[in-house]
């Protein structure tokens, strides 16, 4: 890079400097060429479709982890590589990118966007804070509660981005009333580019919101991409399995765990960052005295709520169609009673129709019924076209379409592994795990998932780990869901680094949080989330999925 060289210092830069600059600017291009070449012996030294598939999966895994090629572009590699390597034909490969699970996921994203589009999520957040209370601890409880709940239904990144300005307004009001200090003293932590670093009390609100959105995303099937990954891979590997990962059973499995984890998060941050059980500490004294200014903070939140105005027809309709989607998913084929899809048994109805019908309604129904006011002589005739509940421009701009490719790439690789015999080969290689206790395998899978997802995006890690666990389950003769569920959920638990998950990156940039403070704050949440997911897998799991041993039809 010529621009990086100062000719005044040296007209002929040293080779070491040039190599350093070349590597700094071109390492991604080098890796994208070197990785496929270095991995060639995997398929050249040993004949067989299973080794050609292993070669492709190894390349995709390394490219996903290093991100030398954009994640979503790497996810398109199976479209040409799988047919070229003779693993599956093009039609079967491309179908993996448009499966029922993916349509459900994309539809869920679109419906979540409609909630953002009409600001219904902001109204819900402000109302919850007003109801819970406005002392510092109650405010923090309100932040944890509403962030956890909203992130069950819309993306955790959108939830966190919405909460950040609300948290900032709350903290500024607390500081204005001498309740809490928001920023550290520059003598202890110098500002960077004029931006100060938040105090531990402020960190509790920002990081607590990020972690709560991650935990909340594990509460429903549409909460985060990893949930759809392990559902899709499981159903692709065992299409005739009696036990399904459907919407009601997923929530019955995960909601108790999410409630416990959110409660532990609130308790943990109160102890470590808000002075609970330390009444003589500086932050403890500030927080305990904060109840005196609760009316002032409540007034600020109430003003923001009043600015939204009364609940509009737009918001009411979005809430209605959102409820329709949830009800349709719950009552499709719940198992405990006859669902509407069971009654319409002429063809097999999966989850995508439950989501796409409300999506169609969002683009069809008018946001405001001004024409009826005119007919009733209560308003003028509309002078311009009435907008729909959701616009395509907003949808096209805000839906993370690349995430659909990412999930589809994982499904394609999983199907190729099964068809090529690589899955069977992997199962034979993991035969030593038969001597391990089942809970030990489950715990180790969760630890590996959490460790890997802290350094890379969680969906690729789930794409890598879940197919392996499918084969481990067959080897140790345990029901695959017993391993897949906790490990798939654990792929979301990235609490240490901004790169681990979008909510971490959002609060880190918004509040100027140093990595060391986020890494420190994530230690205990990581520990108790792993413990709770394993405990849940051996308690609640047995109520939702009573069969733990491997069924004969899966062997």
From TrEMBL:
It comes from the Eukaryota. Its main location: membrane. The keyword Isomerase does not apply. InterPro entries: Na/sul_symport_CS, SLC13A/DASS. GO terms for molecular function: citrate transmembrane transporter activity; succinate transmembrane transporter activity. It is a multi-pass membrane protein. The keyword Transmembrane applies. It is found in: Membrane. Keywords: Membrane, Transmembrane, Transmembrane helix, Transport. GO terms for cellular component: plasma membrane. Pfam families: Na_sulph_symp. The chain crosses the membrane at residues 27-46, 53-81, 101-118, 139-155, 203-230, 250-271, 318-343, 355-375, 399-417, 429-452, 472-496, 517-535. Belongs to the SLC13A/DASS transporter (TC 2.A.47) family. NADC subfamily. This is Protein I'm not dead yet. It comes from Glossina morsitans morsitans (Savannah tsetse fly).
